[in-house]
């Protein structure tokens, strides 16, 4: 990707005002990538704003102690997007994924850059730094920063990149975790990344209410398709009864694949604006293709869809019926 890296360097050299953004309901790969990139650009003397449709998840707040990530408000921030020299979208390659920022990003005359590792991008950017073989957007940024100079990896950049990679590899257990990735992790550790603090903040700072929510969700677990699929349900009543929100369900879906024989895991989350379906799979099952049938997308083994119409009761049998075709 050296040509793309060289083009990015040229953009950085000629631009002063940068806006960074990512997808709705950002995960640690998205947040870690934004924070690392913002710090990298700031060190080069650039003016950087980080604007997201969604608020920063509480478990990622330790990555942003200065609260540089702002929740986008058109009245306050539209001109920042419209007047930017460059807009960089990380961990998302479809403009719909940035939601409320979409019309402003698309109408801005800024140079637009997409840095991502998801498949099936939509055209909107001037430069795509996309590598589907990378385990995380944070991995792409590590290679991008390293192409500038070795001094790019300071501790406050190494840690968010470590978090980005750690979480998107399922703590280094997903298929794209290879020797090359471990060498990157070793380098991040040598440059000051803190693995103990990172894991603690991401995975060990949940509230009692979140644990109660998890108990309710696990109680809903059912097997289907001859035991080769498992699904869980999250209702708005569960949220209100435990004082939790959608953000608190992060990683719940992974419990479906902890059951022997299950190849496809599903989680249906009832939201005010519809239903969110989380998809997971093992091996060669391209679960992102199933997600696409319902208007979503994602990785081969991890994907999601937000469906504005319908209910869990109507969608669940439809998703299970189509899931049957993907079982191997």
Can you put this structure into words, describing what you see?
By secondary structure, the protein is of the alpha/beta class. The chain folds into two domains: 2-202, inorganic pyrophosphatase (n-terminal core), CATH 3.90.1640.10; 208-326, Diaminopimelate Epimerase, Chain A, domain 1 (Roll). 39% of the residues lie in helices and 19% in strands. The chain contains twelve helices and twelve strands. It has helices at 2-14, 28-43, 74-82, 102-107, 137-148, 155-168, 179-190, 195-203, 208-219, 236-242, 287-292, 312-323, and strands spanning 17-21, 47-52, 69-71, 86-90, 111-116, 127-130, 222-224, 229-234, 264-271, 274-281, 297-298, 302-307. A six-stranded parallel beta sheet has the order 3-2-1-4-5-6, with helices on both faces. A hairpin with a 2-residue loop joins strand 9 (264-271) and strand 10. Helix 2 (28-43) packs antiparallel against helix 6, helix 6 crosses helix 8 and helix 9 packs antiparallel against helix 10 (236-242). The chain is globular, with a radius of gyration of 20 Å. It starts with a helix and ends in a 5-residue tail after the last helix. The mean pLDDT is 95.
What is this structure's SSE topology?
Elements: H1 2-14, E1 17-21, H2 28-43, E2 47-52, E3 69-71, H3 74-82, E4 86-90, H4 102-107, E5 111-116, E6 127-130, H5 137-148, H6 155-168, H7 179-190, H8 195-203, H9 208-219, E7 222-224, E8 229-234, H10 236-242, E9 264-271, E10 274-281, H11 287-292, E11 297-298, E12 302-307, H12 312-323
Parallel strand pairs: 1-2, 1-4, 2-3, 4-5, 5-6, 8-9
Antiparallel strand pairs: 7-8, 9-10, 10-12, 11-12
Helix pairs in contact: 2-5, 2-6, 5-6, 6-8, 9-10
């Amino acid at each position: 990707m050296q040509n793309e890296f060289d083009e990015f360097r040229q953009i950085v050299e000629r631009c002063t005002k940068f806006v960074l953004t990512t997808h709705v309901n950002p995960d640690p790969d998205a947040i870690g990538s934004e924070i690392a990139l913002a710090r990298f650009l700031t060190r080069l003397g650039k003016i950087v704003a980080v604007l997201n449709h969604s608020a920063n998840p509480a478990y990622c707040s330790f990555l942003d102690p200065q609260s540089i990530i702002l929740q986008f408000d058109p009245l306050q921030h539209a001109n920042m997007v419209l007047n930017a020299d460059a807009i960089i979208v990380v961990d998302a390659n479809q403009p719909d994924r940035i939601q409320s920022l979409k019309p402003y990003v698309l109408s801005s005359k800024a140079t637009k850059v997409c840095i991502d590792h998801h498949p099936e991008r939509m055209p909107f950017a001037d430069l795509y730094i996309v590598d589907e073989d990378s385990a995380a957007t944070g991995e792409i940024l590590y290679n991008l920063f390293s192409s500038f100079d070795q001094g790019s990896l300071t501790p406050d950049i190494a840690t968010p990149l470590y978090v980005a990679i750690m979480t998107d590899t399922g703590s280094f257990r997903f298929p794209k975790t290879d020797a090359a990735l471990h060498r990157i992790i070793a380098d991040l550790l040598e440059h000051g990344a803190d693995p103990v603090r990172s894991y603690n903040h991401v995975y060990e700072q949940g509230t009692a209410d979140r644990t109660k929510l998890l108990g309710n969700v696990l109680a809903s677990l059912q097997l289907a398709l001859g035991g080769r699929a498992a699904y869980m349900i999250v209702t708005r009543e569960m949220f209100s009864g435990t004082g939790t929100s959608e953000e608190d369900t992060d990683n719940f879906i992974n419990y479906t694949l902890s059951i022997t024989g299950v190849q496809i895991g599903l989680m249906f989350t009832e939201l005010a604006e519809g239903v969110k379906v989380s998809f997971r799979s093992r091996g060669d099952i391209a679960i992102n293709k199933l997600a696409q049938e319902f208007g979503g997308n994602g990785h081969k083994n991890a994907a999601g869809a937000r469906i504005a119409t319908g209910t869990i009761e109507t969608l669940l049998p439809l998703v299970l019926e189509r899931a049957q075709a993907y079982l191997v």
